Amino acid sequence: MFKNLKDRLGGFKGKLSKKLEEELEAVPEEELRREERAAASPPPTTTKAPEPAIETPERPAPPPAPVDRKAQRADRRAKRKGRKEKPPRPKKEKVKATAPTGDAAFTDSIMGKMLKEKKLDDLLDDLEVLLLESDVALPVAEEIKEVLKEELVGRRLKRDVDVDEFIEAALRDSIRKVLSVDPVDLDVYVREHEKPVVLMFVGVNGTGKTTAIARIAHRYKKQGYSVVLAAGDTFRAGAIEQLTIHSERLGVKIIKHKAGSDPAAVAYDAVEHAKARYKDIVLIDTAGRMQTNVNLMDEMKKIQRIAKPDQVVFVGDSLAGNDAVEQARKFEEAVGIDFAILTKIDADAKGGAALSIAHAVGKPIAFVGTGQEYDDLEVFDPDWMVDRLFA
Ligand SMILES: Nc1nc2c(ncn2[C@@H]2O[C@H](COP(=O)(O)OP(=O)(O)OP(=O)(O)O)[C@@H](O)[C@H]2O)c(=O)[nH]1
Ligand SMILES: [Mg+2]
After folding, report:
1. Do 135 and 350 contact (CB within 8 A), yes or no?
2. Is the CB of 351 under 6 A from ligand 1?
3. For residue 208, how far is its CA from the centre of ligand 1 (angstroms)?
4. pTM for this structure?
């Protein structure tokens, strides 16, 4: 899952942290000493007190014991390369329970590591390219780049920060930000909403709508709800039979009409049935349709007008990458989607759609399909995605 994107992000992280390390090494030893002495006895000033983030606040003269900086750097390089043999440790053992990340990783001290904007820009362009190659939508790739840049430009890292960890935290942050739109918790929604809760599933052909419906039915049946399926794909041969098989396996009611009949009427009947029998949830299947087919998009609008679903669920195939994002946009324009389910991520190496849909459409991904079984439906949230990318 997301292997391609994960590997590339790992490579980028390595390059960026190497550059940061080199920046420190580029500062001549003599200069570092001078800066260190200056920081140890700062000139008297009438302005505000030093901030707690400063690495070496108001230490009295004499200057601090010289630290074996070469050894420190060698140590860090060796750690990066995963070498077994250890270079000589610096005299003072560093106590680093957890490396500072985010704002805590920065210092106002002139001794910190800083990456010049030009060098950073070049690296961030590499990041953008690798994201685009992983099918991340352009505005999303740009946003990730910008957020990361804001985190880094003109700021100096404390010397004891583990650069690798710091870069990973900054990358995680920037990705989490683009994934964060108002989340949806369908379990809470179903629990608190007036019954029946009506969900209509839309998307292009073969993305996994019918399978997603079966999985959602399974999920909520397990939670004790009564579920009704509406066989609203009256168009594709075999679609009604496919949903009927799921209803039998799952032991849930199905409302169906003849093949070729009006899908809006099927959906309406299912909702009426649920109301009359006090059922909790109605799941409306619809035929797959290309977002460019005006007639079929109009037919979908009619189902929506008549069945009045509480939530419209866009089902996207993660393997479609950027296309899935474009489809989501078009369905959003046509019927206004409430959230997305992204299927087949078990087979998706790129991860672009998963990263892009929420930001591009402004609607969250609520679940992802992770395999072929009824249970292969996982709740999606930004941390879930970020953890998989950096696992
Ligand atoms: N690997 C994998 N396959 C999936 C997943 N979800 C669905 N599929 C497969 O995708 C294929 C299409 O699934 P359907 O549920 O029939 O798709 P649909 O959107 O209803 O298709 P149409 O009704 O033709 O528009 C089936 O073979 C499913 O088994 C998933 O999360 N992972
Ligand atoms: Mg179907």
Report:
1. yes
2. no
3. 3
4. 0.81
